[in-house]
Amino acid sequence: MEIDYQIDQNIAIISWNMTTSAMNVINDTSLPEFGAALEKAFDDAAVKGIIVTSARPEFIAGADLKMILRNQDQAPKEMLEVSMGLNRLFRRMEINGKPIVAAINGTVLGGGYEVCLACHHRIALDNPKTKIGLPEVKLGLLPGGGGTQRLPRMIGIQAALPLMLEGRAVSPREALEIGMVDEIADSREEMIQAAKDWILANPAPLKPWDEASEKTGSIIAKDNYEVPGGGPQSNAGAQVVAASRAAVLAKTHGNYPAPLAILACVEEGLAVDMDQAIEIEADYFVQVARSKVAGNLIRTMFLGLNKANKGASRPPGIDKTEVKKLGILGAGLMGAGIAYVSALAGIEVVLKDVSPEAAEKGKVYSRKLLDKAISRGNMDEAKAAAILDFIQPTAENADLLGCDLIIEAVFENREVKAQVIGEAEPMLAANGVFGSNTSTLPITGLAALSKNPGNFVGIHFFSPVDKMQLVELIVGEKTSDYALAVAIDYVRKIRKTPIVVNDSRGFYTSRCFISYASEGMELLKDGVDPVLIEEAARQAGMPVGPLAVTDEVALDLVYKIASQSIADGASTESDTSYQVSKKFVELGRMGKKSRAGFYEYPENDTKYPWPGLADIFPLADAQPDIEEVKKRLLYRQALEALRCYEEGVIRTKLDADLGSILAWGFPAYTGGTLSFFDFVGTEEFVKECGRLAEAYGERFVAPASDMLQ
Ligand SMILES: NC(=O)c1ccc[n+]([C@@H]2O[C@H](COP(=O)([O-])OP(=O)(O)OC[C@H]3O[C@@H](n4cnc5c(N)ncnc54)[C@H](O)[C@@H]3O)[C@@H](O)[C@H]2O)c1
User: Fold this and answer.
1) Residue with the nearest Cα to atom 38 of ligand 1?
2) Is 120 a residue of the active site?
3) Does the keyword NAD apply (predicted)?
4) Which residue in 93, 272, 452, 607 has the most C-beta neighbors within 10 A?
């Protein structure tokens, strides 16, 4: 049984208590049981009202996303019927005649909150950790259990739209302020008592959008319900919808169907009565639930992300390890960031730099981040002090004695790295692991400097470390499964997402990212207007255009990487990124840090394209269609990822997909670099690669791959 049923003083208490799933979720098992429990209460003449609650810590986490993914292949008619089944149940809750109260004991999201919306009254347990909301949009879906209809009818379009379009979840207190819940209670007992009191005081509740039929006395939908603040046909309502649509389009460029569908549900559904409205919503739900975008977001950004966070790439058969004492070499930008996230996770950190002052500076970085958290109300002084206490700044190697893991984040220079590896490695605890945060130096080469290359692994963080969720772990030729397991356990402990790749020039993420930057330069060389290049990138869903992002990374770094690549025989001087970066370094235009790159950066925080660009890259008379530019930028990255896969740099499709979205912002709606082929259609992809290769060069030739079958 997934749902408990109990009668208390003539009130039915229906508790979600799922045993077949890690959390209470709406699925093929729980929903029919919930429906049956409700019917039992409706049919029992002695039952005066119903309390819906949960016996687990959460109330209901939402719909079962695996089920939604499975149902993607259903015929639209079949899916519509399932969706209407849910909606008919929720509608029956509203009009059955008996009062139903949601006693929200913990987090309630998506379809779970739609259960609450179908109740007549909502009381939440006051717990700041509880989250209440409709986050469907984040997974390419819309609230398909009447949420797009009931929430705006309850709290107005202006308040409801941002919650549904951003998918933001709120605490019970905020929910009370907004009107998403009606009361909050301090304890479970108080909550249940308040629910009982409400039921007794409201024996025949009526939703404001319903009325008793004059003819039959039964409850029916009103056709003249006035939405608080004005419906979609009022001036105010129409304006809010139009402004929201403009904002959605500016942000998503139409790549995500769900927010537009939510707006359509509100606009069309709130203009008719509740019974017709839920049919409109169900139609839109089926459209978005069947979309490739929803499938991609659920697969990569929810199920895949959860899998990776649980350590899907961890080698089997190795006992769980724990880093209790961590050494960090180099207290610069990266070292200081790594110290902060590790201390936050309760790990004792020894932060070493060349002088006590330099090491202390690294610790001050954490102090500043903690102060910010305190000023935002997310941290208290005592906790901040305890976190800071975990960081011991030092200039002495001896303090590293007994570390389970040491991560070096010193200058990107092989000699400096060789020196610190030699000095620090002997301080490791027995079977301790050495990690390098290098961004460009091959791990196998660095491991050769170690006395124990089996325990040497690449641990590549991204900047800023406190904000970037991904960590790319690099397996060198000799890296043992044990060292990889230690690295994965550590990354999980600091609550980041690990992906695992094999050693290669630029590993996986830098290599694909460079292909993006490089295609921006190729486009410039072809005489494409830089404004068009950057706009095409944004419209394709990249967070920053290739020229602006290259300026941020710095052209001297691109030059250094391209030169090294030539020195190692991996590319030639004809390489465009080499030629362009060399030219810009000669001009002293290193990018944002020198306030001059592809853009000019005046004193304030603004930028504009450098007018001198046109002298170096004269504009072509005929500019390409923006779709062609978008295609070049996205295909180039996906092709590089595919080469990584075929060369064995990438071990799993999931790691490639997640890495691309989380490391450099490849658009999530595609599902990631290796899901991109399915998104476009493999046949179409191969055909287009052929055309692009003919038009622009062999970098667009697709490698033979089972991914393209
Ligand atoms: N900056 C990034 O975005 C980024 C991203 C990923 C990886 N990385 C890599 O991380 C490493 C560090 O980069 P960063 O940006 O933090 O550099 P940084 O210049 O900010 O910091 C390097 C620190 O190392 C210290 N150092 C130098 N020699 C040392 C020694 N012998 N012992 C102890 N400390 C020593 C320096 O004093 C300095 O504080 C590099 O390998 C870099 O490639 C950087």
Assistant:
1) 332
2) no
3) yes
4) 93
